[in-house]
Amino acid sequence: MATTVVGRNKGPSDNDDADNLFISKKKMPGVSQGEDPAAALAHARHEFGEHGGVNMSIEASATFTVMEPETMSRMFAGELGPDRDFFIYSRHFNPTVLNLSRQMAALEGTEAAYCTSSGMSAIASVLLQLCVHGGHVVASRTLYGGTHALLSHFLPRVCGITTSFVDIEDFGAVNDAIVEGKTNLVYFESMSNPTLMVANTPELSRIAHAKGVTVVVDNTFSPMVLSPARLGADVVVHSISKFISGGADIIAGAVCGPAKLVNSMMDLQQGSLMLLGPTMNAKVAFELAERLPHLGLRMKEHCHRAMAYATRMKKLGLKVIYPGLEAHPQHILIKSLGNKEYGYGGLLCLDMETEEKANKLMNLLQNVTQFGLMAVSLGYYETLMSCSGSSTSSEMNLEERALAGISPGLVRMSIGYNGTLEQRWSQFEKALSRMGLIK
């Protein structure tokens, strides 16, 4: 029997479920509430410390005691659970992790959420929960390399789950790829890694839902900027390690979606999260919960600087990709879908055409002018740079990278906010000058 996740940390007679264990706020699936994500976070339940502290306490216990021996059997039977403040073991449920989960649900505007040990564990757990053996996925052909490898190689070998990779801008191709009665889900990124293509989540959701198919969206690149669940998606996944953490010091993930799905993923006999055990450490959950309140401020500055740099790069004649530029193919789309005042994302891409030129530029930017750091990942306060084709998209072969629009010299930049804007821009220009690209 599944352990229910609906209810408050009160007694069994309390029927108020407006502020329950997993659920942040009731909403109709697929209906935009028009709520600023920062406002939604502020409305979420605030967990105080055990002794009245303004910050919640960290529940670091791996296992939990019971007062009567009969209670344990009732918990394992699903009769008593976290909704009534009964905890068994922190791989199942942990109070500190549950609080972060409520915050993530509020952020994304979903009924429920559950936080995991990594972004890939969140993605893999959702796919394994929603797909059946021999099932089928329709996915964007432009995805993070690890996700692409999971769908291309691991799931077919282990589970017989196959994937049709399509251009998600081609709605006809998406519709034709969905096989009614076989396709389990449609999967894409709200802003693609690394090409920064913006997905038309409302239309893709309409197409999938018309055929009874679940929509899963990775929103790692654009927290606060885009809210896929408010635009029609069923499930939103995150690598919290990136912008949400902001410190490049934590590996974590999250699944945000309907309470029914999260409940099923925590089922004692059939739940992917329960049985595979991608457990988040309570101390990590505490640290992340302390960073979420200023995520909106950080995102606005990431986006502001990315827009400023992209605009200036374009004026210099560089081949820059950024959704905030009018020349970007989805500029009008992101203006219509994006949350107001959060800009167009904290990443930009600079196409240097060849890997040799890309490496030369990055070497100058890090080791000579100190503009940024050569490193994968994103969302750090320093600018991080990588040549995607030979790093985070290297799991894809040459043909797959070409179809995804990933040039050999594509430099992905996660724009930081450390130092002043003019200071960093001067460092960038000096590197261009050393390459002879500007005088």
From TrEMBL:
One of its GO terms (cellular component) is cytoplasm. GO terms for biological process: transsulfuration. Residues 1-21 are annotated as: Disordered. One of its GO terms (molecular function) is pyridoxal phosphate binding. Keywords: Pyridoxal phosphate. The modification N6-(pyridoxal phosphate)lysine is found at K242. Its cofactor is pyridoxal 5'-phosphate. It holds the Pfam family Cys_Met_Meta_PP. InterPro entries: Cys/Met-Metab_PyrdxlP-dep_enz (IPR000277), PyrdxlP-dep_Trfase (IPR015424), PyrdxlP-dep_Trfase_major (IPR015421), PyrdxlP-dep_Trfase_small (IPR015422). Belongs to the trans-sulfuration enzymes family. This is Methionine gamma-lyase. It comes from Kalanchoe fedtschenkoi (Lavender scallops). The lineage of its organism: Eukaryota, Viridiplantae, Streptophyta, Embryophyta, Tracheophyta.
